Amino acid sequence: MDGGDAAIERLARHHTAFGWWLVVVSMALGTILEALHALKLGVYLDVSNETRRLLWTLAHAHGALLGLLHVAFATSLPRLPSLGEAGRRFASRALGAGSLLLPGGFLLGGVVVYEGDPGLGVLLAPVGALLVLAGAFVVARGARAPRGV
Amino acid sequence: MTAAGVTTLVQGLLLVLGVGLAAGVVAVGARSRAGWLAALVLVGIVGASGYAYLARQTAQEASRDELQAELPRTAHEAVTPPQSAPGDAPTYASSDRCMACHPGRYASWHDSYHRSMTQVASPAAVLGRFEGQTLEAKGRSYRLERRGDEYWVEMADPDWEAGLMARGVLPDSVPDAAAPRRWKRIVMTTGSHHMQTYWVASERDGRLFNFPWLWLRADQRWIPREDGFIRPPEGARTFDVWHDSCIECHAVAGEKNFERGKGWEPSAAELGIACEACHGPADEHVRANEDPLRRYRQRLSGEPDPTIVNPARLDAKASAQVCGYCHGINMWKPAPLAAGERFRPGDDLRETRVVLRASTKAAHSSDPLEQHDWPMLMKQLERVMEQNPTVLDERFWSDGMVRVSGREHNGMIESACFEGGELSCLSCHSMHESEPDDQLARDRQGDQACLSCHPGHAADVSAHTHHAPASVGSRCQNCHMPHTVYGLMKSIRSHWIDSPNATTTRETGRANACNLCHLDRSLGWSADRLAEWYGQPRPALTQDERTVADGIRWALTGNAHQRAMAAWHMGWSDAKQAAGAEWMGYFLGHLLEDPYPAVRYVAGQSLARLEPEQAIPVDFLAPPEERARLRGETMDYWREAAEDRRGRVADRTARLLGEDGRLDDATFERLAGSRDDQVMDLRE
Predict the structure, then answer these.
(1) What chain B residue is nearest to A131 in terms of C-alpha separation?
(2) Domain shared by B96 and B130, yes or no
(3) How far apart, in whole angstroms, are the C-alpha atoms of residue B637 and residue B620?
(4) Is this complex's ipTM strictly greater than 0.90?
(5) Can you name the residues that pair with B208 across neighbouring β-strands?
(6) Are both B182 and B215 inside the same structural domain?
């Protein structure tokens, strides 16, 4: 195993662990949301808290799917021939930061809601979305065959 | 630059920034055609979002047209939502637009009976049964039918009847067989809580005529409209037109727009009492808050939004006037009416309307506007009273306390709590934090509403009430807001907050709070307690007032309102706790033959509460001979319960019992024979 392969291996392990932990946290959030349904808590289910319910559901769903995205990224790292060191580093950081900001923004935005409007925490969500988008784009580009092959 | 200009500039900059950022993120890593293609896709997405935003704006412009298209043609023509307001007048947005930003508020309103006060007739709105049956009353027959989602009635042509009325001929004077008959589609409904009535459209001028029957929700039956009110029992059928008066309060910004010679051009922003009825025209508010930056700035500032009225943030009097415009008796002032000025929430109601006050307090008001209005009020009243001398009696007790339901503002403004304090409707009621019945605020149930301003009484309730703290006699509202108002076939709490007073009862004929619980005690008994506990002077009383239980006295000798009030209280749980229950059945039985259908109905309801599995089922609309039989059988059935064979009744005389505990029939007959048969016509 050369230095490049070792770096890829390290990065893959990091994203595998990160991804699965994100899935765990998001599933735990999902379980809590189910409990809120079971207990019929007005703070979550009342019509006036519809915005909170939407945002926390989005946080749960985005967190779980982004966790799986990290696992997929880790799995595909050895098969991204055009993704250089810089691209890997950028994609890793963008996906990592985006995966925290996007569901985190939804979660925080639902803590304090103003009737139909989310709390200011939701501002983190679009930043996270752009980072995830950028990371995914760089990874997608890295999947193409190297020039001349 | 205007605020709107700044908003547009910020929105433009954000759009450019979004497009640039999206394209930049892609282009930085792009070294291939695929990368640039992706950049183009992103730019396309942002562009499409911008287009969608603009399309939404256009759709909102057209939303009112769509709303109209949903209305059945006849109702649409009868009540046309205004396309635009004249001049600079603010325009209405409709409740649909409020939902997106205020889902909880929208939902609580949607659950309310305000929302369903006026509805286009549809299966979701119509409560009554249209099953091919024929209804008959006052010589007219009506055949009901449902055709798919439509409701139809075959009846004497209402346009023909309106023509007769215009010529001064009573439609009832023409036999049903001679009347031209028409199938009319029910286009609109009024009410949904206690009763519901229906409207059919004129084929001549689009006016809506009342289908003269009511559907009683609790009883699940049709009754002639007149029988749902205290109206002269032998009076003519009422002939109501929705545009005449209903439109002003049962729709948002409803206006009849009648001009002599030109006819009717009614308009309304929305059917039912919707968001903008209380919050005012909201179009500007909606447009301003499409800007998220403004929304957050506004929310975080904690300041009221100047583009909308929130009655909870108005001062107490202005807040009360928002409700009082409809929940009150008031008349247009001629000058503002002619000038096209209209009351909008947040305005001073008294600038456009004269609030009718029949109490002597009004004459001595120190309020400059009321002083100014007083001569005008008197002049208008004189004119009205020339045509209808009983106009005040139909609405007020003789001391000016309002006596009919739906006019709570007139009662409240006479209260000391309102005059000198901060009392408003929202002190007890909440439109959004309450149950639809009565809409009492969840945190203001029971004594809480009063004790928030009068905490001193909470420490030692009995010292003030002279009743056990947990008893119904210690509940603030039972003494200070007794059920002396009539409406919706029941007694309703007075909103003129006052204290029980035997002299007032003597002078006005309005039972006091003591005797409305202690139905088995005389007015003299209450006068003694009030003198002993509160130092009130004892009024000079007649023998019957001193000795006969007030509940019995009003039931036997009172006028129709007083009899209905006695009958209702005999079914009231608090009164039954204070006065016992079963003895009342005998007197309720007597009221089953009352000349007023509404009194018979209330008596029947109280009997049903006394014995839910009724041994003798009663029907308040049964033919006269059947009613006589029901009265006799019911009185026989309850007679033993009314008597006192075991010597348990403290005051036998009050309960019309002789020394032997048996009913004193002679006194009963004497009192029943002196019934006050003045014609009552209560305009609830």
Answers:
(1) B25
(2) yes
(3) 18
(4) no
(5) B201
(6) yes
Question: 3-class secondary structure for B91-131?
Answer: CCCCCHHHHCCCHHHHHHHHCCCCHHHEEECCCCCCCCCCC
CB of B250 closer than 8 Å to CB of B118 = yes
CA distance B430 to B602: 29
Does residue B284 register a pLDDT over 70?
yes
Amino acid at B606: S
Residues B50 and B127 grouped into a single domain? no
Q: Judge: A116–B21 Cβ closer than 8 Å, yes or no.
A: no
Q: How far apart are CA B428 and CA B453, in angstroms?
A: 12
Which of B244, B278, B308 delimits the end of a domain? B308
Calpha distance B230→B485 (Å, rounded): 12
Helix H segments across chain A? 3-38, 42-45, 50-76, 85-109, 124-142
| DSSP state string for B496-546 | S-----HHHHHHH-PPPHHHHH-TTSBHHHHHHHHHHHH-PPPPP--HHHH
Convert the pLDDT of each residue in B32-78 to its tens digit: 565 566 667 666 766 666 666 665 555 555 544 544 444 445 555 55
Say yes or no to pLDDT of B669 above 80. Answer: yes
Domain boundary among the residues B396, B427, B444 is at B444
Written as six digits, the tokens of B463 are: 């010292």
CA distance B150 to B187: 9
Both tokens of B551, joined, read 């509940």
Residue B485 is assigned to a structural domain of this protein: no
DSSP, res B365:
-
Contacts of B290 in chain A (CB under 8 A): none
Helix (H, G, I), strand (E, B) or coil at B649: coil
Report yes or no on B486 lying in a domain. no
Q: Are A44 and A53 in contact (CB under 8 A)?
A: yes
Cross-chain residue pair B299–A117, CB shorter than 8 Å: yes
Q: Tell whether B296 and B173 lie within a shared domain.
A: yes
Cβ–Cβ below 8 Å for B25 and A115: no
* Tokens representing residue B645 in the block: 């064979």
Encoding tokens for residue B161? 């009847």
Q: Are B604 and B643 in contact (CB under 8 A)?
A: no
**How confident is the model over B227-232, as a mean pLDDT?**
95
The domain tally of chain B equals: 4
DSSP state of B657: B
B464-521 residue pLDDT tens: 999 999 999 999 999 999 999 999 999 999 999 999 999 999 999 999 999 999 999 9
With respect to residue B458, please indicate whether it lies within any of the assigned structural domains. no
Q: How far is CA B232 from the centre of its chain?
A: 22
Q: How many CB pairs under 8 A join A and B?
A: 54
Rounded to whole angstroms, the Cα distance separating B337 from A41 reads: 50
Q: Are A87 and B299 an interchain contact pair (Cβ–Cβ within 8 Å)?
A: no
Name, in order, each residue with C-beta under 8 angstroms of B116's C-beta and a sequence gap of 6 or more.
B125, B191, B192, B193, B272
Amino acid identity, position B626: E
Same domain, B118 and B145: yes
Answer yes or no: are the C-beta atoms of B549 and B527 closer than 8 Å. no
Of B198, B200, B201, B141, the closest CA to residue B172 belongs to B141
Does residue B56 sit in the same domain as residue B168? no
Same domain, B381 and B513: no
Q: Which residues of A touch B21 (CB under 8 A)?
A: 130
My answer on whether B150 and B277 are in the same domain is yes
Q: For residue B318, tell me if it sits in a domain.
A: yes
Q: Calculate the CA B465 to chain-centre distance.
A: 31
- Burial call B534-560: b when 16+ CB within 10 Å, e when fewer: eebeebebeebbbbbbbbbbbbbbbbb
Structural domain of B554: 501-673
Contact B261, B280 (CB under 8 A): no
